[in-house]
Amino acid sequence: MLPQASLPGDGLSSGGGWFVRRNPVMVAAPGTISDLLRVMGVSQDVTQREPALTLPVWRVRSGAVLLHEGAVADFLQVVRSGTFKSLRTLEDGYEQVLSFAGPGDVLGFDALCSGHHASSVVALEDSTVFAVPLRELDHWRQHCTPLDQALQFALSRQLARAGQVAEMMAPVASEVRLARFLVWQSVSMAERGESPRRLYLRMSRRDIASLLGVAHETVSRSFTALVDWGCLRVDNREVEILDADRLRACAHNTRGFPDELARGEVAGARRRGTCSSNLANARSAHRELDATRPA
Amino acid sequence: MLPQASLPGDGLSSGGGWFVRRNPVMVAAPGTISDLLRVMGVSQDVTQREPALTLPVWRVRSGAVLLHEGAVADFLQVVRSGTFKSLRTLEDGYEQVLSFAGPGDVLGFDALCSGHHASSVVALEDSTVFAVPLRELDHWRQHCTPLDQALQFALSRQLARAGQVAEMMAPVASEVRLARFLVWQSVSMAERGESPRRLYLRMSRRDIASLLGVAHETVSRSFTALVDWGCLRVDNREVEILDADRLRACAHNTRGFPDELARGEVAGARRRGTCSSNLANARSAHRELDATRPA
DNA sequence: CGATCGTTTGACGGTGCTCAATCACCGTGG
DNA sequence: CCACGGTGATTGAGCACCGTCAAACGATCG
């Protein structure tokens, strides 16, 4: 029932069939620069300085492709409402999800260096975006300093998030990856002012699986494992975090079930032998780094 | 104990041990904006417009930590020469390599949104960087348009690369990941004007393993597998690509050894059963995407 | 209500992680 | 000069996590 997206009933549905339909995106009423800045986190009002500047707002239906990988880049997009996933389609049809984006996030910036989009972007629910023409981007950045700084800020955040995604793809137990993903989702929700305990996941198990680098069946199994361990309550895409501390402990641990929680309370759940991992660079050669965390 | 850190006797070592030591990086002669722009790929000379602007150049010895994860960010770095790795240290001491950076690449931009570095940066060989004070960054960007555009270009490329890294971490056979990594390294070398056939890897097997999301022993085994398949010749960190087409074919295939190469020539090397993968989003639900590649 | 897709659960087999030993390489110091 | 400790790279053996295949159930929408 997808209980409500962000912009219900826009009356533009256009009924046509799937991929033949030309416009997965449709133009809505234009927005102002102030609207754009607000969603990007700039409180300051610049209406008086640039009153006339407006830019198009597009509606994107759930499942529609906003940006096509390989297509020439015309616009930079900033999410106004809704949720998107960014993905690359590998040569054999495989889809690798790279990130999820919500209000305030920038889409399509990776196309600037080559002129072609390096990744596709698909709406996970009915959404709206600001479409900034690439031709005018430099002009606006030079004439609207808050916009420029907000853009740099968003790009920096996007790079930092790419690192977090790599952490979630790190070769650790699948339950740990899912726990990290849920913690990450939780703090994302909190940053947007929503409840960090009750999550409604907009993405499918497949998408989560691709982001975490596991099979989607494994995501299901990891969900039930976290439920068995008392961390969560799960009903399809609704997730309630019952024990945030335990979930975080699981997310921090390299492999499987955290040690200090293994005794008693969750009987018989312990099944892995080792808890230290040889994987990758644990305790590698950079002693300067180790020095920052004295034994 | 902790036998020596990054600076084998630079005179600054201050004898007092490890992390207390202040300067793993040393100041060299300052560079000009033109130098910075040149390494970032801007041919245009702006010396006449901004003749007086110079900025510090730092020397970073092999193994030294240029940026510390969690530290407050003072500078933005642009690689002038050498190679770096960027990594995040997880809570349990695990090191996740995020990317490798060479001349022209920007380091530390992920700190702009939070004020603290989201990742550490370590030199893989003796290197030099331009250090751009964050306080002056906006000023320079506004007064030197080529620098600003070069920065945006570099950031866009960095985001695109993050996607490629995710592809290399994708859950496919380990030999495929290594093949993708080598192809990626090869084109990187070609872009810098060096030979795409003969590679000298600056990073250790551990670092490669972390980037690919496998154990470092598996990287060794995958190297020997690619050698057995006739793709490579490997001597420690020197790699010669013998059959680029076959290597690319292996990199494109989802799992293991490419089919069309399996017969005859490499006898007995075939050992995997399936070649199609259920993993993640192969052929998932987005019909618009399929429309772009007609059957 | 039927078709389609998403989710869950089960069983099985294989890839790759773990542990371990060995070798090569290097700078150090006897 | 060679012995010595330390690091990195390689190879082998064993096992278990997770990918694959399969089936069943639930959800959604026409």
Structure explained in plain terms:
Two copies of one chain form a homodimer. Chain A has 295 residues and is α+β, with helices and mostly antiparallel strands. Chain A is 32% helix and 20% strand. The first copy, chain A, has helices at 33-39, 134-143, 145-169, 174-191, 205-212, 216-228, 244-252, 287-291; strands at 25-27, 31-32, 54-55, 57-60, 65-67, 75-81, 84-89, 95-101, 106-107, 120-123, 127-133, 198-200, 232-235, 238-241. In chain A, the strands form four sheets. A five-stranded antiparallel sheet of chain A has the order 1-4-11-6-9. In chain A, strands 5-10-7-8 form a four-stranded antiparallel sheet. In chain A, strand 7 (84-89) and strand 8 (95-101) form a beta hairpin. The longest helix of chain A has 25 residues, at 145-169. The radius of gyration of chain A is 21 Å and the shape is globular. Mean pLDDT of chain A is 81; it is low at 1-22, 259-275 and 282-295. At the A-B interface, strand 7, strand 8, helix 3, helix 5 and helix 8 of A face strand 5, strand 6, helix 3, helix 5 and helix 8 of B. The structure holds a DNA duplex (30 and 30 nucleotides).
